[in-house]
Structure formats: C-alpha cells, structure tokens
Amino acid sequence: MSRRTRAAAVALLFTGACSIQHYQSTFSDAAVEVRQFNILFVIFLVICAIMYLAVIAFLVAGLVRRRRRLANVMEDGRHHESDPLLRTALIGWGVVVGTGLVGLAIASFIADRSMANAAASEKLSITLTANQWWWDVRYNSADSSKTLRTANELHLPVGVPVRIILNSNDVIHSFWVPSLAGKQDLIPGRQNDISITPTKIGIYRGQCAEYCGAQHAHMALVVNVDSYADFLKWWRHQLQPAPPPATPLALAGYNFVTGRNCSACHAIAGTPASGTVGPDLTHLASRRTIAAGTMPMGKGNLYGWVADPQSLKPGSKMPTIALEPDELHAVVAYLETLK
Amino acid sequence: MSSRFRASLLILGVAATALAACNREERHSRAKPIGETVPTGQSPDTIFPGSTTAQPLDARASLYDNNAPALSEGQFLYTRMNCVGCHSHGGGGMGVALMDDEWRYGGRLDQIAASIAEGRPNGMPAWRAKLTDDQIWKLAAYVRSLSGQPSKDVVNSRADAMSATSPATLTPREPVRSSDSAQQ
Amino acid sequence: MRRVDTAIVVGTLCAALFALTACDRSPEPKAGAPIVSANLPADGNRAVPSPAASPADDGNWVMPGKDYAATRFSALNQITPANVSKLALNFTFSTATSHGYEAPPLVVNGTMYLVTPFPNYLYALDLTKPGAPTKWVFKPKPLAAAQGVACCDTVNRGAVYDSGKIFFNTLDGQTIAVDANSGQQVWRTQLGNIQKGETITMAPLVAGGKVLVGNSGGEMGVRGWIAALDEGSGKVAWKAFNTGPDKDVLIGPRFKPFYAMDQGKDLGVKTWPPEAWKIGGATVWGWLSYDPETRLVFYGTSNPGPWNPDQRPGDNKWSTGVFARDINTGEAVWYYQSSPHDLFDHDDINEIILADIPWNGARRAALLRPARNGFFYVHDRRTGQVLSATPYGYINSAKGVDLKTGRLIPVAAKEPKPSRVTRDICPAAPGAKDWNPSAFSPLTGLVYIPHLNLCMDEGVMEANYISGTPYLGADAKMYAGPGGNRGVFTAWDPVNRRKVFEIKEDLPLWSPALATAGGLVFYGTMDGWFKAIDARNGKLLWQFKAGSGIIGQPISYRGPDGRQYIAVVAGVGGWAGAIVVGNMDPRDPTGALGFANAVKDLPMKSTAGGMLYVFTLPR
Fold first, then answer.
1. Residue B96 backbone dihedrals phi, psi, to 5 degrees
2. Confidence (pTM)
3. Neighbours of chain B (3+ CB pairs under 8 A)
4. CB-based contact, C5 to chain B, within 8 Å
5. CATH 1.10.472.80: does it fit domain B61-158+166-184?
6. Class for the domain spanning C34-137+151-463+470-616
7. Cα C73 vs. chain centroid, distance in angstroms?
8. B162: closest chain C residue by CA
9. pLDDT tens across C517-562, in order?
10. How many degrees, rounded to 5, is the angle at CA C383 between CA C382 and CA C387?
11. Is C420 touching A (CB cutoff 8 A)?
12. Around Cβ C448, how many Cβ atoms within 10 Å?
C-alpha cells in the first residue's frame, strides 16, 4: 500500500470512530461506569501501544545488529561476552514492562473499586427478569404500593446511581446497554446485579448479549435517561391503571383482551387481566418499540403484531391467534388507548 | 485412484448417507391451518353403538407427537398456565394424576387435547377460549410425556423447577388405560 | 499376611458392617408412649373457659366447637379412665361419600345431623329408635365443577344448629338453612363464585341472629371476605373483605389495632403492589369464635396469594392475621397480624379458644390459639395485645415474636426466593398445626393439641394469574421433622407456657380433639385408630380401629336413654389425605402441594371411607 493510501485509511478510521452516534456505542460517556471503562481502555491502549512499539523497535534492532554480529563470530571462532549495551537494554526493558503491568493493574483496580463504591450508594433499585425473548422490568420501592411493572423499556433519572438486579426465568441472557455500562449475564438459578449512574439525558439502546434462542436478535431494550423531575412524572404516570374503554370498538377490544387469550398471559392494571407470562400492557402504547425492539411502535405495526406474531418473531411465545377482522380492529383500537 | 483417495471418498460417502438419514422433526411456529379446532369427543374406548371399531387417531396428532420443540413449548405452558397447580408434576392433587396409567377421559393425544379444550365435568376447566389449538396440542403432547409415551430422544431432559419426579429421559413408559378406579 | 493381622482386618470389617446395619438412617417411627415433661398447672393457676361463651352442657352438640368459646369440651362424665376400656361400638352409619370427613356430627334433642363432603348431603338420624334410622336427607346438589377449584379435598367442616334450623355451606359457595324437623329448605343464598376460584368449606357461626360465613380460595387468587346473613331470611346483612381499601374491610373509627405495624389508613391497599390485593387471598375458611359479652366475633384470615412472596412485596394486610369484629355491623375492632408478608402459607385460621387466665395476680380475658406458624399465642381478648407467643413445635424459620412490636422475626436464610430452592423449612406449609382444632379442658387447664411435625423444601417461580386456576408460583416437598415422627399430640399449659405431655405419632395428626369431664381426651389417627387417653398424663386407655383414617371432630352427647355416647365419622382425606382420595401417584413428591411426599405410605395404611361410629358403655 502506498504511503498516501495508508494515511487515508488511518484518517478514515479516526473519523469513523469520532462520528459514532451515541445511541448504542461503547465509546459514549453517558454514564459513570462506561466513562470509567473508556478511561481504562485508553490507559491500556496507550501503555500497550508503547510496549508494542518498543517490542517492534527491539525486533528491528535485533534483526539489523545480528546480521553484522554473525560475521564476527564466524571469523574468530571464540565465544564473545554479551554486549553490555544489550544487557542494559534488556534490564531496562524488564523494568518498563514490570512498571507498565503494575500500572495497568492499579488502573484496573481503581476502576473496579470505584464502580463497587458506586454500587454502595444506589438510590434506585430495579429488578430485571429476562425471558425468552423480552425483558420484565420491575421498579422496587420501600412503599410496596408504588412498585411498578413494565416491559422492554427502562427510564432512569440522570445522575442517580441505579442498581439493577438481574434474574432469568429460562436460559442465560446478558444485559448490555453499551452507552451506559458493560455486560452482565442473567443466569437462571442465580441473581446478579449491575450498577449504572447515567450522566447524560438521552435515549440509548441495549440488547441481549448472550445467545438465548431463536429470537435472541429481537431482544432489545430501550433506556430513556430523563431529568429527575421527568422521571418521577413518568413513574407516577406508569402507576395509573389503564383508562376504561371510551368507544364501542375499544370496548369490544377490551372484552376480547380480558375474556379471551390475551389475559392468559398479559396484565393490564385496572382490568381483570393479571397474567405474568408476557409483558405488562398497561402503558403499551407509550413505549417506543413492539416486542422488545422487533419493530417501532405504531398502528400498522400493532396490527401486524397482533394478527400474526409468528411471522414477525417466529418461535416467540406469543401464539398466532385466529382473529376475525373485526376482532383485530377492536383489539388494536383498545391497545392504542393504553398510553 | 490412489488408496488414500479411495479411503477419503468412502468416508465422505458414509458421512453423506448419515446426514441424509438424519431426519429432524419439523418445527412449526403456528398451527396448520390456523384456526382449526381440536377434536371433540369421548374416550376412544367409549361404546359407539352400531360400529365395531374405535375412532381413528386425528391426523394432526403426528405434528406434535414425538416432536421435541412441541414438547418443550408444552412444558413451558404446563407451568405457566397453572396446570402444575392442580396436577403437580404428574402426581395430581386437586386434579388427577397424569403420570400413571389411568385415563378417565382417554389417554390418546387427541383425547387429551379434547379434555384440555372442553374441560371435564368434575372440575377440569375449559381452555378453548384461552389457548390456541396449537398451544393445546403442545400441552397434550407434554402431558403424555409425563407418563413416558414419547421416545426418549425428544423429551426435555431438564425440568424448569425444583427436582421432583425422575427426569423425562428416564421415565418408564406406562400403558395407557381408559379406566377410572375413582369412578366419578 | 500373619494370622493376627488377618484377624484384625476381618474383625474391623465385621464391626464396621455391624455398625452400618445398626445405623438406622430412616427409622420407622411408631406411636410412642406419652412423654410427660411437667406437672399439671395448680388449681388457682389455670385457664378457665370464658363463662359467657361456654354455657352449661345440656348433653347436645349444636356447633362444631361445642360452644362459642371453642372449648370442644363435654361436661358428661359417665365414661372415665376407669371404665373406658369397656367402651363399645353401639351403631354405625355409612354417609355414602368417600372424601375427607372433617365435620362433627351434631346432636340436638335426640336427632343427629351429619353434613358430608361434596356433594354435601345433610342427614338427620333418629337417635330415639334402635339403630338410629334416617329421618330425612337433604341433597343441595351443588355444582360438580366446584370440585375443580377446591384446593385440599372437597371437605366440609360442619353444620350448625340454631333456633330450629340447621345451617351449612356447600362447596360451590351457597349457605343453606334447613328446618331441623322436616328437612325442608328454609332459605338458600349464593355467596361464592366458582369462576373466580371461590368455594366454601367452613362451618358457619350462628349468633345474635346472624349466620357468619367466609370463603375459601387463598391458593386460587381469590379475594377473601366474611359475610353475615340474617338468620331468618338469609339476606346479606354485612360483608367485609379482608384486603383492599378500609371501606371494603369495614374499618372505621372503632378500629384500634394494638401494634403500630397494623395501624394506618388503607393498609389493605398500601401493603401490596398495585392491584395485587384484588387477588390477594386472606380468605376465611377456618374457625370463628364469639364473645356474647362484648358481641365480638374472632376469626383468622388465610395466607396471601400467591405463595411466591417475591411477587407481593409489603406486609400484605390483612392476611395471616386475626380480626375482632362487631357481630351486628361487621366493623373491625382490632386486628393482629401473626405473619406479616407470609413466606410459608401459614394461614391464621386455626381455632381461637376464649379463656380467662391468671395474669399478674388478676384474671385477664384472653384468647388462646395454637397458630400455624408454630407459636402458641395468648392474646388480651379486648385489645389483641400478645401476652405470650411460645413455640409448641419445632421452628427454624422464625426466631420468635417481638412482644414490643408484635412482629414475627423471620430467619432470612429460610425465605423462599426466586433462583434458589430453600431447604429444611420448619414448620412446613401446613404449619405446626393446621385447621384441626384442639380441645380445652377446664378440669386440667390444658389445651389438647393434635398436630404435625413436618418440614419442607420449597422452590418458587413467577405465578401467573388466571381466574379459576391455582395462583401459587411454588413447588414444595414435605417430610418428617426432627425425630422422624410426622404427627404429635401435645398437652399444653397455656398459663405456664409449656408442654405437659406429648405423644409422638407416626402419621400426621389431622383429626380434632375432644375433651370430656370424665377425664378423657379423644382423637383419631390417619390410619384409623380412634384413641382415648387419660387427660392428666396421656396414657392410652382405649383404642378402636375404624375402617378409614379419622380426620373428623369426635363429639360426646347424652342419648335419649341418658347414657353418654362418643361419636366420630371416619373418612380419610383433606389436604393430608389427598393422596388417598385423589388416587394420586406417589412418585411425584410435589403432589398435593408437597404433602404427597410426607405420606407416601398412607394409601397402604388407609383407604377412603365415610362411616359414622357411635360408642357407649355397655349397660
């Protein structure tokens, strides 16, 4: 590769890295944890780059010097003393490597301990239970009547340390919101946890990071980081039960949802439907995606999902129900009122 | 042809045959066709006046019997639809035992599916409005696995709950008798 | 090898083998001789039944508890330890049902009334004629589908006689009043809805012109309530729920719970996650007692739903606790929660005995109750204050009861949590004692408690609510507790708070007890032995092998000929006997909510039945 091409490639790499949008990016600094990880990453990169370059330099030097030295040995036939310069260089290299490793260990230790300390000052606790293939979210509260159940979306207040307790109902999943924190597995039979302290308001995308079955790719999580006031407003709104149906079509939908298949798995607060097998639907229409990131929320997508979930997310636990057309209209009309 | 080339050709041939013989069951994600209902009716051993033969097994049963994904889904539904609350892990309780050899209302796959869909007089709820026919067939297939009916390479070797009965891969196959010693 | 070496090796091997064979890892416990640990309480230091609630004995048995104080004590004294060995069978009667028989026969002036488990037949037998022929049968014809939502066998805990009528409940949620002479229906009121998973199995309480009825279904996501029907018309006079806002629970200005943990507004909503109280349990399927002096009715509420505690953070009021309500209006007067945020299905519906006890030199109006969580509570009857809470069985799931705050102190390691199986929880879900009531004898001052010694393993998972189906989220396996015996009969001194004697039983004891003034106590075992023991020291004086296990209330009455009779109906079943009546498969240890594992041998020791046995001394 010519020098010009090489320079262009490097430049492209850097611009690419800089222009990454922070919706789902490990290079963001939207949370304390991910910022610490990135600082650690840069420290590792710099020290290891220095080591790498030094090794390359030694290799080159060794190749060049050795060619000249070989001729002398062949001529004399005697054993020569080690090159004092080389000896010093090697000792110096050992010291540099040792210092470098110690430095890396200290950096890693500091980063780890500071994240553990953040865990001690958690103010908000969320229990996340992973199912195939959706996220069951429960906001815990000392006042049990303020606990909240929702699905596939997290709302976090900016600047507040949050502890997320991780459970799984079936197989191993992994919680990963790249812009906010690293990965942590959700393992059936074991309870894990992870701490997040978001620092930037915005919307971030997370996804399942451990292969968990046919629809592992459609198991995304949307995280909204809001101001504290907005967060409390959201929480208060989520505690409201579903409004009663206002139109005859919505009423027909309500009757179907509570009387037929839907209520066997789903819960809608304020109605007799109290199923826990599938996501809580009380505020379904206020979410950004349907079916854990399979499609964006919208009327048409809701129609498609309710009519035939198996064609959009084959293998998911929501069955394709043989709905009559007017039943489908009624159900979607009712679901749209669940804001 | 060198001997080495002949040997590798032979190995390739054997491997190809083995793969072709590997007939995995079909995994379907919805019933075919959608909206068909499970069959109705009494035990195949009921007396049908005027005929001398039992009713044939419903054709759809073959889609679910000995079908590993169906059994796995059935196991999931058995717990989450609260079958386990009445029937435990086959031992019974409020409901009858499902791991023994007595089937009050018939133990064939289509008859079990009918019992789930229609309910039965002494307290079995009717699930027709709450579960799709595909889900009901899958549940019926799982119920049969509690008494060891499917072959051992399709059943789920892992229970999702605290260990109770012996694993499905070790459950001996019980005979299926349309009998009822409780007589009610 | 040298001879000596060989001898040593062989000798050691033999010794080891011998030790191993002698090492009895799973002993076959048999009913043992009574173990006497203490003396009877002294004369002045005894509890006595509350006089207003326990009038003089007229030789009848008109309510399951014998009187409003729930003493289950008969003042008849013809049968004594000296002559009980001659007690003989006088007549029998087959109830034609074969599910668990938990009810007492009622005897009113020469007629005996029997109410059966589903289909809840009501028989009237004429005791004045030899062989007690049937006078009439009333068949309520309850819905057959109700059998599918009855958690623990299709039992009925008894009828009640009052003002010429017999009152009883049917499995499908009706309360029926039948004329005691003619057997004609007077009124019938539908209270429960089987579509929601509700049934009714309890025996009503009739007092002050009201018939008090409560529902069952804590395992089915039912919302618990207690209702009072007008005795003459059957119309609902008042109905109080046990979860939800204060206006539904009939909590008003008169409500004064003793402890801070039970004080606050709308606790029936605030101590639950949103909406969870609507399917929260707290049913009333057990025993009610009544104080005619203060006109208060006392009863306990069942477990909260679901069994999985992780799904319902909060104290879950007003479940697993005891209410005192005014019988006229239903207003709550006080409440005490025995197990806040119940972890183990420790319903609080056990019998509540009204007694006056010596306390710090004075007489104090008290309530005595051996509760499911293993503690014997003594309360002040007027305020609900816990005077003492002493373990009467082995408990490792709670450290004790803090008498200052009134709160049960749980052991964190024993809490069922998702993602783990919690092992060795004692007492198990049926508790140190389940519904089967104890008897109280004023002559000895002791409470005679037939109860359990069971521990369990429990695993929890998320429960799914579908009305009309179980709402549990738990698997359990029960087994014998320390000692290997699954049942135990304890004579308890409530004043000095200690066991006086105890009798170990192989099988769990699921039968109530009867105490008589003759100095005897009667109870039955699950394999059918009906036993009479000496009330002072527990010595077995007489026993009779019935055709089926005994889980029903034994009674004593004065027959038309003036003789004392002892009657009991033998028919194994209930939660403990489900493995027999349900024809269950013993290979599944989680069957019958875990009980099957504890009584795998029961089908060989008792078959189902429903036979009345009446005994008396020969002339």
1. -75, 165
2. 0.90
3. A, C
4. no
5. no
6. mainly beta
7. 16
8. C459
9. 999 999 999 999 999 999 999 999 999 999 999 999 999 999 999 9
10. 100
11. yes
12. 28
**Neighbouring residues of C233: CB distance < 8 A, sequence distance ≥ 6:** C187
DSSP alpha helix (H) spans, chain B: 3-21, 68-80, 83-87, 109-118, 133-145
C262, C255, C379, C258: which is closest to C325 by C-alpha?
C255
Q: Which domains does chain A have, with CATH numbers?
A: 14-236 (2.60.40.420), 248-336 (2.60.40.420)
- Alpha-carbon distance of A221 to C511, in angstroms, equals 55
Q: Does C28 qualify as catalytic in the annotation?
A: no
Nearest-5° Cα angle at A303, A298 to A309: 110
- Classify burial at A213, counting beta carbons within 10 Å of its beta carbon; exposed 0-12, middle 13-18, buried 19 or more: middle
Question: Along the 339 residues of chain A, how does pLDDT read in single tens digits?
Answer: 556 655 555 555 444 455 455 688 888 889 988 888 899 999 999 999 988 998 898 889 888 876 665 555 555 556 666 678 878 988 988 898 899 899 999 999 998 888 777 667 778 999 999 999 999 999 999 999 999 999 999 999 999 999 999 999 999 999 999 999 889 999 998 999 999 999 999 999 999 999 999 999 999 999 999 999 999 999 999 999 999 999 999 999 999 999 999 999 999 999 999 999 999 999 999 999 999 999 999 999 999 999 999 999 999 999 999 899 999 999 999 999 999
**Per-residue pLDDT tens over the stretch C424-477:** 999 999 999 999 999 999 999 999 999 999 999 999 999 999 999 999 999 999
C2 Cβ neighbours under 8 A, 6+ residues apart: none
Catalytic residue among C153, C172, C342, C345: C345
- DSSP letter string, A239-284: HSPPPPP-SHHHHHHHHHHHHSTHHHH-B-TTSS-B--SS---TTG
Tell how far CA C255 is from the center of its chain: 27
Residue spans per domain, chain B: 61-158+166-184
- The rounded Cα C167 to chain-centroid distance in angstroms is 20
Rounded to whole angstroms, the Cα distance separating A181 from A130 reads 17
Establish whether C345 is a catalytic residue. yes
**Tokens 């014997």 identify what position?**
C376
* CB spacing of A259 vs B30 below 8 angstroms: no
